[in-house]
Every structure is written in structure tokens, then in C-alpha cells.
Amino acid sequence: MIAVQSVYVLGRGFVHPMELSVGDRVYTLDNDLNVQVEPIESIESQYINQKINRVYSGSNNSIGLDDARYMYYSNNKGIKFMTWEEIPLLTPNKEASDSSYLPVLSALEQSPMRLSSLELDGLARSIAVGEIDIHVTKLLRQLGGLESFALIDLLDTWMGTDPGKGGLRGQQVKARRFSFRAGLTFVQELARVAAMAGYTSQIVSYGPLEHFLLVNHESMPTPGSIPKTQKYYREYYTGYMYNINAKNRPIFGLGPADKHSYMPTASILQGEV
């Protein structure tokens, strides 16, 4: 089981685990790093007060029990689902190489582009100047991976800023910050767009209509931070843990450290992915 703040459900947005239903359609990652929409097959929850396993490494930040499995990728060896104890043994503590296993936190969704470059440019300009309405939010929900990648690139041109070294929330990978005066739902949809583009992200809110979106501009799989800063430790945790099964795969959502990414899975123990 893992700690989860929310899961992105198609047609509903980010949903608290207690409000999920079997049949809700979610984004998953298969063993070829393809983004696939699958229905939730089962949901388990458990309130605990005990020691848990913590991975703390920039964007790669998760809390899980011993049954959690973490998706890692090596250019030479492919995909491996690791236990928490295996991670420090099989991942680099200095420079990464093609044989190194790195965490899979996101992946570029591969559906064909439906919007033209002109339409995407118009969408980016509307967002950059604050002309954000229901139509813009609805359009964001329809973007696939290549369109999302192009939109993030355009937004970077028009309004992206550098959060600085070790800047916002201690981020250490290459990142860009976007500032919005808009509702949280809109910014959350941009977090989904970032995931479709193959990035991870984080929202920092300063008020109902004032938000920063931090997008980690490093292709996935990514170390999540400088390897030497990786930390793996056990700590006491009080609260609910969940096993949300959608074809035994990692699911896109919001993890315990406010990071939007594909989360570890425990349901892999119930069958093959």
C-alpha cells in the first residue's frame, strides 16, 4: 500500500482516494512505458500507525509499505519493479549510465496531434495573458502527449521563469515555473498536461486565485534529483494507505509530497502487469 493524496480520473479531475469508485478511468503506465487509460478494478484502504518506507529524492518522493513496488528503467536492462530495499542497491549513487536503473515518474503519451500549430499557439497565448475560461480548461482536458509537449514548450517561451538552484520547495532538477491568477482546477489540468508531455509537476498555492506550477523539464525516466542526495529511510506514519488497482500498473496522481507523477503500485503482487 502507498500514501496517496489524489488520483486523476478522466472526466472528474483529481479525486481523493476515499471518493474513487471501481470503474473510474485513470492514466496508467505499461511495461513499454506507454500511457494507457484503464478502469480502476479494486480499491483497498487501511488506517495505520506504524513505520513505513520513505523514498525522498526530489521528484521521486513516496511513502509505502513493504508490498509497494517502484517502477525503474535502465536503457540496457529495461523495466524492473523494485522493492524499497532493492532501490539503494540497484540505483546509482553517483553518475548514471545506460546500465543504471532510474525511477519512472512520467512518460510522453503518444497519441497523434489533433490541434494545428496555430491552434496551440493561440491556446498558449490565451493562457499567458490570463484569458482563461471554461473553453480553455475544456480544451486542455483533450490534449494528448505531443500536443501537451508543444503547449508546455510554448508556455515556457511566453511566461516560463527559472525557480533558481535549489529554489521552490528545494527542487534540484531542471525546472520551469509558471505563475497563474486562475482557479485551482485550471492549474490542476495543466499538471495533467505536464504529465502527458512526459514531465512531473508541483502546484504551490498562495490563495484561491494565485498559484505557481513548477514543471520539471527533464525527460523521464529521471533520477529525480542529484543521485548523491537520494535518501531511503523508515519513519513512523499515521494515516490512511491505499492500494488502487488498475491493471496492476502505476497510476497518475498526487503523491504525499505534492508531486504529480505516476505512483508506486502494490497491486503488481496480484498479477502480471
Please explain how this structure is put together.
- By secondary structure, the chain is of the alpha+beta class.
- The chain folds into two domains: 6-107 and 226-270, Endonuclease - Pi-scei, Chain A, domain 1 (Beta Complex), CATH 2.170.16.10; 117-216, no CATH class.
- Helices cover 19% and strands 34% of the residues.
- The protein contains five helices and 15 strands.
- It has helices spanning 87-90, 117-128, 134-140, 145-159, 184-196, and strands spanning 6-9, 13-15, 25-29, 35-39, 42-57, 60-64, 70-74, 78-82, 102-103, 175-180, 200-207, 210-216, 231-245, 252-254, 260-262.
- Strand 3 (25-29) and strand 4 form a beta hairpin.
- The two termini are 17 Å apart.
- Residues 165-172 and 219-228 have low confidence and may be disordered.
Provide keyphrases for this structure.
19% helix; alpha+beta; single chain; 273 residues; Endonuclease - Pi-scei, Chain A, domain 1; 15 strands; three-stranded antiparallel beta sheet; globular; four-stranded antiparallel beta sheet
SSE sequence, one letter per element: EEEEEEEEHEHHHEHEEEEE
Point out poorly predicted stretches: 165-172, 219-228
Distance between the termini: 17 Å
CATH architecture annotation of the largest domain: Beta Complex
Strand order of the largest sheet: 2-1-14-15
What's the story with the biggest beta sheet? 4 strands, antiparallel
* Radius of gyration based on Cα positions: 18 Å
In which range does the helix fraction lie?
10-25%
Secondary structural class: alpha+beta
What is the typical, i.e. mean, pLDDT? 86
* Number of distinct beta strands: 15
Q: Quickly name the level 1 CATH class of the largest domain.
A: Mainly Beta
In CATH, the topology of the largest domain is named Endonuclease - Pi-scei, Chain A, domain 1
Note the total helix count: 5
What's the CATH H-level superfamily name of the largest domain? Hedgehog/Intein (Hint) domain
In total, the number of domains comes to: 2
Coarse shape:
globular
Q: Into which percentage range does the β-strand content fall? A: 25-35%
